[in-house]
Amino acid sequence: MDIKAELNGMRYLNVAIREKNRELDELQDLKVAIATPVITGMPKGKCFERSARVDVILDKIIKLEKAREDDIEELVDKKLMWSEKFKSLPLEERMILEFRYFDGMTWADIAKKLNYEERTIYRIHGKALLNLKKL
């Protein structure tokens, strides 16, 4: 796998974590929205249906939280590895790579933040990737 693809994979992993957080928020809201069952003693009453729905939601929450934790662990490991590699680059190159792949910024946002033309960001980014290949 080439360097750019690996770095993009890290960026996409960050997006996947944010999406899982959004899904977890929705499931938590749904869990709260389902009324607490009232036990009536009647078999097959609505309280049992609600309880089963809550159980399904709780199961989904647990699985999603586990998947998110795994993604976070993988992302932290990758960021540590790439941070070490980035240290050997000039500050300008390192900043662009970190903004793009660690923070998920767009090219336009990076250019604005550094007060550069967008094409200059592309050029510096390309140079940074070449320098990483030399390591």
Characterise the protein shown here.
The protein is an all-alpha fold. The chain is built from five helices and no strands. It has helices at residues 3-33, 46-86, 91-102, 107-114, 118-134. Helix 4 packs across helix 5 (118-134).
Q: Residue ranges: pLDDT <50 for 5 or more in a row?
A: none
Mean pLDDT over the residues: 87
- Into which percent range does the helicity of residues fall? over 70%
Number of helical segments?
A: 5
Question: CA-to-CA gap between the ends?
Answer: 15 Å
Helix vs. strand class:
mainly alpha
Largest sheet: none
- What's the helix-strand series? HHHHH
Q: What is the molecular shape?
A: elongated
Which radius of gyration do the C-alpha atoms yield? 23 Å
Assess the beta-strand content as a share of residues. Answer: under 5%
In total, the number of strands is 0
Short description:
The chain has 135 residues and is an all-alpha fold. It has helices at residues 3-33, 46-86, 91-102, 107-114, 118-134.
What key attributes describe this structure?
5 helices; mainly alpha; 135 residues
Spell out the blueprint of helices and strands.
Blueprint: H1 3-33, H2 46-86, H3 91-102, H4 107-114, H5 118-134
